């Protein structure tokens, strides 16, 4: 039997890294390369676990070291994101949608990087251009990967190709895209709610320097305004700790409900006056902002404006 | 009018870098991107000049600095092979057939590297998969690029895809592949014959250390055994100079005629005995070897064997 070639995504795998690895290995198998197998470079997250269970697909083999292995890389090309000792592996192909990373091979290999929303989109294209029909389970995995990486086509990385491919896969998987997207978001919301307060706050936290003030603003996506209600005291305590440890004037957590097209801003710190002037009255540490989804476009600018006006 | 995007190959452009740039720009034009134009990063070689003239295609614009330009790179991805100041350009796409080089872009872009014989093969595939028919001139340029880079399908880098694509392009260009390959080799032979002796010897010259001895072996491809006959004294003088300057025991030039499937070995140095034992009697500084085409497989091993036997 020939040595296996493993298709594998990045460490801390997300649903695109898992789904792309499985669907591409299956594609290779359909092309007669039976020694190609899917693998993963870390534990499954809650969303990926749900998706595999939903489509009755077993979890790919867990690998922890690349030394001496034959690999096809999907969804990454940075050494730091790859299996340890990736330089000691033989990489046969790279298929991904980020900017080209620092991995180089001694010989020419097939490399396909394309700025689409998900690696799974590129793999679905391979099926279609090779006139191979993905099984319902593979179509489902690729849809899940695309919806996950594009946040249901809402991310600015979403391309027309992602939409087209997903629309073509949906009937094959027997899925309604909107409905399935909602289920994936439910799963992510539940998983978020069960994380530690530090993990929730830290998952997407950035510091901003505005004039004299330093602010920290995190964002977390949930489904339903009350998804994190039972964790509120816990998270506010964590926010105060970060505030003090880093000497920030304000710590804000955007609890964003994409479905409701709104964010709850949770705010702690000495300069609540600045936040109130920017967003209105803060009651019990929170202010509800209908229509607010973007930290960059809808939260940072009003704060900067308030501070600029005061500085003037 | 939008800013032009130039499709450009490597410095010292060969026929693949020229043909791929022109054919890909034309492909983009057919897709409605009229601001895409071909360019080149250096003077045309004799073969490329012949090919452009043959298909009545004007030479692409000559660029000398990448600063501030919008570029699509074909046939290279090494900074050292690209236009000067390539880091100051905006690179939109990379399409090539070598191993991925050291060029990195700040954002994700389309990168397609595939180990085929010529970049033109990848571009012809784009035409076909987009159901666009290349014009006779474009088909001819792509054929010329493929024949040139694969040495008429003889190079070990040749893939089935190169053969398939060329066979599909040939009727579109109205060309007989064998016949056109012969003409390209004639052009290259004439161009070689007109180079300086140093350029002929140096075009593909490698040093080898075998036990105590250091040898230099060059190779040049010609058509017809007598193609370099009128340059022989000139080249032998150059070979003796290199021998002395580098302190080599032997300098060998393989004058290879692929058509005749044979090489003439021209030999100078103090250890003609070693060469004679490996290849037979050397008369007037040369020995004719029918069937000998590969330096790596047919010239280096017999020399190593002779020296190993003597050392034993």
Automatic annotation (TrEMBL), chains A, B:
<dbReference type="InterPro" id="IPR038763">
    <property type="entry name" value="DHH_sf"/>
</dbReference>
<dbReference type="InterPro" id="IPR004097">
    <property type="entry name" value="DHHA2"/>
</dbReference>
<dbReference type="Pfam" id="PF02833">
    <property type="entry name" value="DHHA2"/>
</dbReference>
<protein>
    <recommendedName>
        <fullName>inorganic diphosphatase</fullName>
        <ecNumber>3.6.1.1</ecNumber>
    </recommendedName>
</protein>
<dbReference type="GO" id="GO:0046872">
    <property type="term" value="F:metal ion binding"/>
</dbReference>
<dbReference type="InterPro" id="IPR001667">
    <property type="entry name" value="DDH_dom"/>
</dbReference>
<dbReference type="GO" id="GO:0004427">
    <property type="term" value="F:inorganic diphosphate phosphatase activity"/>
</dbReference>
<dbReference type="Pfam" id="PF01368">
    <property type="entry name" value="DHH"/>
</dbReference>
<keyword id="KW-0464">Manganese</keyword>
<feature type="domain" description="DHHA2">
    <location>
        <begin position="182"/>
        <end position="307"/>
    </location>
</feature>
<keyword id="KW-0479">Metal-binding</keyword>
<dbReference type="InterPro" id="IPR038222">
    <property type="entry name" value="DHHA2_dom_sf"/>
</dbReference>
<keyword id="KW-0378">Hydrolase</keyword>
<dbReference type="GO" id="GO:0005737">
    <property type="term" value="C:cytoplasm"/>
</dbReference>
